[in-house]
Each structure stands twice: as structure tokens, then as C-alpha cells.
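To the wet lab folks,

You asked to see what we're planning to order before we commit. Fair enough. Below is the target structure as C-alpha cells, and below that is the sequence we designed to fit it. If anything looks off to you, flag it before the synthesis order goes out.
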């Protein structure tokens, strides 16, 4: 896989993972926690794919600066890290929604 395809793989998988997080949060807000968990699991998988590509790029670079750093590469890294943070926060928010549902019943 060429560098451009790898970078796009990070961006696409990270974006898909983040979208699934927001879908999961919406499911939790409506009380569908089974769907919320399914969507978070799908998000984990998408983000795992993006992280795998990132890891492959890091390994190929060998800490020697072999991989050219471009603006789109920086964008891909930023996209992945913010998506991972989004997943972690959404998981916490789902737990809060679960607790509120228990108290409302």
C-alpha cells in the first residue's frame, strides 16, 4: 500500500469510528443501550484499523524520518487522535445516560 493510501486509510477509518461514536451516543440518549454498545464496538474496530495503519507507518519510519511529513499526514494523525478521544468520552457519557435511566425509573 502506498503512503497516500495509508494516510487515507487512517482518515477514513478514524472518521468512520468517530461517526459511529456519535450514533452510539444518540442511541444511548434514546435509551437503546444495546444498540449503543454495538455501535461503540464497531467504532472500536474502525479506530483499531486506523491505529494499525499508523503503527505500520511508525514501524516503517524506524525513527529515522523516512516517512515524509506532509500536511495531510498531520491531518490524519490529528483525525485519529481526536477520534480516539471522542470514543473515550462517549463511552463515559453512555455510562452517565445508563445511570440517569436507572434513577428515572
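Sequence we intend to order:
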Amino acid at each position: 500500500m502506498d503512503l497516500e493510501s495509508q494516510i487515507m486509510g487512517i482518515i477514513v477509518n478514524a472518521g468512520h469510528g468517530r461517526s459511529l461514536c456519535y450514533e452510539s451516543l444518540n442511541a444511548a440518549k434514546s435509551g437503546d443501550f444495546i444498540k449503543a454498545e454495538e455501535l461503540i464496538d464497531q467504532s472500536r474496530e474502525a479506530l483499531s484499523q486506523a491505529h494499525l495503519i499508523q503503527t505500520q507507518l511508525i514501524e516503517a519510519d524506524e525513527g529515522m524520518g523516512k516517512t515524509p511529513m506532509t500536511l495531510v499526514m498531520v491531518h490524519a494523525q490529528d483525525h485519529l487522535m481526536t477520534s480516539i478521544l471522542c470514543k473515550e468520552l462517549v463511552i463515559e457519557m453512555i455510562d452517565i445516560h445508563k445511570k440517569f435511566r436507572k434513577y428515572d425509573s
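Structural context that might help your review: The radius of gyration is 16 Å. The chain has a mean pLDDT of 94.

Thanks,
Computational group
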